[in-house]
Amino acid sequence: MVEKENVVAVLKTILDPEILMDIWTIGLVYAIETADNKVTITMTLTTPMCPYGPQLLAEVEHKVKGMDGVVEAKVNLTFEPPWQPSEDLKMQLGLV
Questions:
Q1: What is the CATH classification number for the domain harbouring 44?
Q2: What is the pTM of this model?
Q3: CA-CA distances (angstroms) from residue 25 to 21, 65, 68?
Q4: What is the rounded CA–CA span in Å between residue 94 and residue 19?
Q5: pLDDT per residue of the chain (96 residues) written in tens, 0 to 9
Q6: What is the residue range of 57's domain?
Q7: Residues 89, 67: Cα–Cα separation, whole Å
Q8: Residue 42 burial (C-beta neighbours within 10 Å; 0-12, 13-18, 19+)
Q9: Could you give the number of structural domains in the chain?
Q10: Beta strand spans in the chain (E)
């Protein structure tokens, strides 16, 4: 069985190319569902017009699909709610 914690560990290895921080830490991942060795990730991008969007989504799917025991990986893209950096993240990025 695929554990959510293991999926999170993989997501922490995937960097947003513009912010240069992992997609888990910056809050782009909204949900992870695991069932029957299938993983579904619901996530967003920093902006709807993110030029790296297709590349980032493909990397997420590829890395999760490559995990031991995963037979299928699916990434659902959503912009509801729109991504907003947390106050902690704003501080880390020097935006506050």
A1: 3.30.300.130
A2: 0.92
A3: 7, 21, 23
A4: 12
A5: 899 999 999 999 999 998 899 999 999 999 999 999 999 999 999 999 999 999 999 999 999 999 999 999 999 999 999 999 889 988 888 877
A6: 4-92
A7: 28
A8: middle
A9: 1
A10: 29-35, 38-43, 72-77
